[in-house]
Amino acid sequence: MNPTSDVVAQLSGAVKRYGQLTALDGVDLVLHRGELLAVLGPNGAGKSTSISLLLGLIRPDGGRAELFGLDPQQIDARRRIGVMLQSAVLPPSLRVGELLRLVASYYPNPRPLDESAHLAGIADLLKRPYGKLSGGQMRRVQFALALCGRPELVFLDEPTVGMDIDARQKLWAAMRALVAEGCSVVLTTHYLEEAEALAQRVVVMAKGRVLSEGSVDALRAQVPLTRIRCVTDLDAAKVAAWPQVSSVEREGARLLVSTDAAENVLRRLLDADLALRELEVQRAGLAEAFMELTREERGIEQEAA
Ligand SMILES: Nc1ncnc2c1ncn2[C@@H]1O[C@H](COP(=O)(O)OP(=O)(O)OP(=O)(O)O)[C@@H](O)[C@H]1O
Known about the structure:
By secondary structure, the chain is of the alpha/beta class. The chain has a domain at 225-283: 2-Layer Sandwich (Alpha-Beta Plaits), CATH 3.30.70. The protein contains twelve helices and 13 strands. The protein has helices at 47-54, 75-78, 96-104, 113-120, 135-147, 165-180, 192-198, 216-221, 236-240, 262-272, 286-293, 295-304; strands at residues 7-18, 21-32, 36-40, 62-67, 81-84, 153-157, 184-188, 201-206, 209-214, 226-231, 245-251, 254-259, 277-283. A six-stranded mixed β-sheet has the order 5-6-7-3-8-9, sandwiched between helices. A four-stranded antiparallel β-sheet has the order 11-12-10-13. The chain has a three-stranded antiparallel β-sheet with strand order 2-1-4. Strand 1 (7-18) and strand 2 form a beta hairpin. Helix 4 crosses helix 5 (135-147). Adenosine-5'-triphosphate (ATP) binds next to strand 2 and helix 1. Residues 18, 21, 23, 41, 43-49 line the site of adenosine-5'-triphosphate (ATP). Pfam families: ABC_tran, DrrA1-3_C. Residues 262-296 form a coiled coil.
């Protein structure tokens, strides 16, 4: 890697096998300085395996993993990162403040404890033993531990699982603050609205491969659908048979229509039901793009299950 390049982490043609199973099948992934990259994909897509390679927790069977241009197992690379994994196990009897002090001591230039606590929203938890915290509070402490060393790159593996709406919003704000400082973030999440709200770039994986990669807008543009919602008595099956209608669902009194020709379908809906009301028209989001991009892979998985 070129030392002046803004690439902070990279997988090149990474292959990882577990016996017969190919968990990663030639994955290329690049993370630039100061960007938040969301790695999305159905269960078993290879997201955690990709992160484990970049962290040096496992070795590739083919291709390469690099952190700051170095082998991820080198201490000089590892000192520059912070990590929040799904499977964090921490000593339950240590108080939160003690944990923060301990982890910060591994880093050459850590944040002051109060700053880490404030960023992660755990200032009121510092004296509590870790093992006595709720699941959501533990996640916030793990987030504080990931950022307390003032890392240049943070890996967050499904960080907001188990958090209430308030805690999730605070964590989003903290992630934005990290990125504003110039920190790079790799985020895996199953909450597509999280990726939509935070990510500069999104990678969609399935079955150990990268299916698609780009900005949230670019991914959305791959699926040029509009969502129409309205209250109507029109028959869902009949509307589904109209030209340019992709799908129709009924939710009680409401009809949800997806189409790539919103104006034409809207005209026809209004003509067909003069009593139609509570009309909403919205561009399809990342969720629809994700479902469309991974349709085949999810279909195969469902058949196999
Ligand atoms: N240590 C292991 N031994 C055997 N198979 C493994 C191991 N780790 C991962 N796998 C397999 O590799 C594939 C990719 O797993 P991975 O955990 O990377 O997926 P993921 O995208 O993170 O999924 P999830 O969204 O469920 O966390 C899966 O089929 C998984 O069962």
